[in-house]
């Protein structure tokens, strides 16, 4: 679903096209610093992530940039009046299927030299 209003009628949607997807991946380019492109308020033609993605550049075996876009819903609290103290947001990347199993399972058991059962548990 679109994250912004109709781009045909909304200047914010035209200049903020990067917000129409949650995740973007591009190969690193020194000149690509801002997801909406350079000089967004003055720009007449949209620039940024959607235009960079159209180039269909290879990302395999390249330095990449992961761009994430998310919205924050603020539910007001009485403590937020008259000044909202802070708003936290973020994300976490967790691998899924990176290993075929848990690599720590093959570790030898640790022996506690202070234990009375130092020689084993079933002698």
Mean pLDDT: 79
Number of strands: 2
Rg from Cα: 25 Å
- Looking at the structure, what is the overall shape? flat
Task: Spell out the blueprint of helices and strands.
Elements: H1 11-15, E1 23-27, H2 49-54, E2 64-68
Antiparallel strand pairs: 1-2
Q: Can you walk me through this structure?
A:
With 123 residues, this protein is mostly loops. Helix content is 9%, strand content 8%. The chain has two helices and two strands; from the N terminus they run H-E-H-E. Strands 1-2 form a two-stranded antiparallel ribbon. The longest helix has 6 residues, at 49-54. The protein is flat. The termini are far apart.
Please tag this protein with its features.
123 residues; two-stranded antiparallel sheet; 2 helices; flat
């Amino acid at each position: 679903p679109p994250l912004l209003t109709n781009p045909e009628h909304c200047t914010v949607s035209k200049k903020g096209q990067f917000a129409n997807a949650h995740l973007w991946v591009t190969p690193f380019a020194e000149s690509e610093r801002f997801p909406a492109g350079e000089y967004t308020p003055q720009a007449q033609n949209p620039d940024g992530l959607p235009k960079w993605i159209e180039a269909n550049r290879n990302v395999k075996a390249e330095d990449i940039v992961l761009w994430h876009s998310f919205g924050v819903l603020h539910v007001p609290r009485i403590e937020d009046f008259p000044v909202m103290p802070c708003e936290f947001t973020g994300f976490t990347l967790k691998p899924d299927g990176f290993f075929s199993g848990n690599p720590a399972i093959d570790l030898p058991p640790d022996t506690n030299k202070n234990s009375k059962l130092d020689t084993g548990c079933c002698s």
